[in-house]
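Input chain follows. Return structure tokens only.
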Amino acid sequence: MSAVEARLGELGLTLPDVVPPLAAYQPAVRSGPYVYTAGQLPMVDGKLPVTGKVGAEVTADEAKQLARTCALNALAAVKSVIGDLDRIARVVKVVGFVASAPDFTGQPAVLNGASELLADVLGDKGVHARSAVGVAVLPLDAPVEVEIQVEVTGA
């Protein structure tokens, strides 16, 4: 077991299986020293635990937890490409999308769920640049979607 996965265990978390693509794309691809994930929804056992807009059907606190799940799914996608999460040199960028009610402006706080998880799991390697974007709707009426870019070591 990798040190990263051991750290997940210490946090009471388990790396999930890679979420299968919903369309014609790969969950993650590598280009040179970088791995880019597709947008990861907060799927748990193949299903969304909740749907709707943040600030309407979904609370900001619920959405923050969903963003954590998205980040876990992103790590699973990265592992599917590099085999060992200990090869992550650093998380470079996180982009998060929040399906938002018209008056909801708390997208950065929602995306803290993903950012905090990455920092908790990877330490300084998990600190990253980030964009938090409010959108009208996401696939499957998901409240949150997160993609990450990581730099990796080795071939």
